[in-house]
Amino acid sequence: MQKMPAWADAVLVPMISLLLAAILSALVIISIGEDPVAAFRLMVDGALMRSAGWGYTLYYATNFMFTGLAVAVAFHARMFNIGGEGQAMLGGLGVALACLYIPWPHWSVALIGTSLAAMLFGAAWALIPAWLQAKRGSHIVITTIMFNFIAATLLNYLLVNVLRPKGAMDPATARFPETTNLPTFRDMFSTADTVLFRGTPANVSFFIAVFACFLVWLLIWRTRLGYELRAFGQSEPAALYAGIAPARITIIALLISGALAGLMAVNTTQGEAERLILNSTEGAGFIGIAVALMGRSHPLGVFIAAILFGFLYQGGAELALWTTIPRELIVVIQALVILFTGALDNMVRMPLERLFLALRRRES
Amino acid sequence: MTLMPKCSAAAAVLALSASAALAEPALIFDLGGKFDKSFNEAAFNGAKRWAEDTGGSFREIELQSEAQREQALRRFAEAGFNPVITMGFAMADPLSNVAPDYPDTKFAAVDVTWLDAPNIRQIGFAEHEGSYLVGMLAAMASETGTVGFVGGMDIPLIRHFGCGYAQGALAVNPDLKIIANMTGTTPAAWNDPVKGSELTKAQISQGADVVYAAAGGTGVGVLQTAADEGILSIGVDSNQNHLHPGQVLTSMLKRVDVAVYDAMAAGEDLETGVFTLGLAEDGVGYALDEHNAELISDEMKTRVDAAREAIIAGDLEVKGYYENDSCPVLDF
Lengths: 364, 332
Hints:
The structure holds two protein chains of two kinds. Chain A has 15 helices and no strands. Chain A is mostly helical.
């Protein structure tokens, strides 16, 4: 039996968590002698009230959507993929190789090619932990996090020794050819009179992320494979009894998860930097865990949570630009939101469940 | 009514971000952060001194992510800050994108010298010349005939430091042994004092008794270990002699603070183009103060100052690493 109605689970719990995080953040800001109301207004103004702010908010949100979906798909099969960071790094390698070594005639063709490369590389990086989990029982949490380190070292080696142009200081590849540059929101939405999204990195891959949300919804709730995933996640013995092979479903779930995480690189590497840089993922793989938890592993929830985290990132940048709040405290504020919405979920959920149970008892 | 002042304060902050009338300078620190005791902190000190001298104020940001590089440049330029000063070679790529969009804004880029844009003051330093001088001092102070070099991230810039150092040391003693190590190949190598300490211990075990750290925040570990083990060290960028008085032989000064100070003082009239600050411009040099006075004898000082004059006059040429991407006297 459901302990509380679905709306409370999907809306009330995250809202209360957010409110608690906001209150604590406000206390942090007050304690260093700044004005929390002004800070909040600055964040909203910088992230949501101007098209340029949205350009950054949606750019960050695109990353978080991909990594959030990656974590969510694995969650449905009750697996904790915390290797999104490494899978996205390898996805970036795939994008970079495709952009640099294949002469694409047009960005649209290039986008299809690089997306496939990103998915392929991301999925391949998830394959080994998946196989170890399915066939050897090595726990996925340990293996995927170790693979993050291996990915970082591999990328470091390749960028420093192989892909870096001669004489360059940055550990980064050469710039990708012009024909692979994705259209930004500015190219798409500006008219002759008004320039929108000026100088912002949001690009066409945002729509791929939205489409991916829809595809994941189709997959999880409208296909046989999705049913198998959820059945396996609910109970392995029951799934086995129903004729679902655990090893097969484990590997498939993680391949999809890795491919989604890898896709993030299309946004950062091809869309924003237009070259592969060393820390192109910047922790988005880990933020994806919080996004999936907050979005209750539902694609719509992931979409909304990703936009919220995009707002926090862009708002944080505005705080760094226009206030004297040190960047360490901005990270603290972002971390508080992750802590409350992700890790301390039960702190809000359990009292709420008790409250709803008490209410129901009184009614009956 | 307590809400009113808060709202007006918010409005003031917003007005600041929107107004284009202020021509204050802005300073963008690299990912290392402004209190790295080295490169970024030197810039902050220069800016602070300018603010104290002139009563002016400046805006600053410590970057958190790669995407913010371009964002910070654009937002400062849009808000009318002028000049916008950036730290580190990693800003070159974003600058080449942003600078053409804001032709009325002057940018100043420290450690960038290869861009083609009319509104950027590109400031490079002749680090090999300053390193040559401290290399001479190291060779004269060494009793074992072995000196060490600990670099930060293995990039051409740091090899440039090491190459000048080796040439200076070998000019004093052609039989000298030089041990060169790099901390790493990623930006993390700028802030790894533990690794710096380990490298120093390894060099000491190979006989080094003077170690030169050109490694940003990593150098703090190098200087600490050298002091603990009773050998001499050489600091970099800022004057680091005071960190361990009597145990830091000297510091190779790279006057980032002066470059930032001058850029801020020039304001909107900042002269653009490529500027390389060497010994002649006092852009680089070696530090001599009360903390290392006893370590530098008169004879050492005479020889180094003579070399300094010779380099300025053009009689003595220090080979740069960039000339053909290799160092004639040292393999890395």
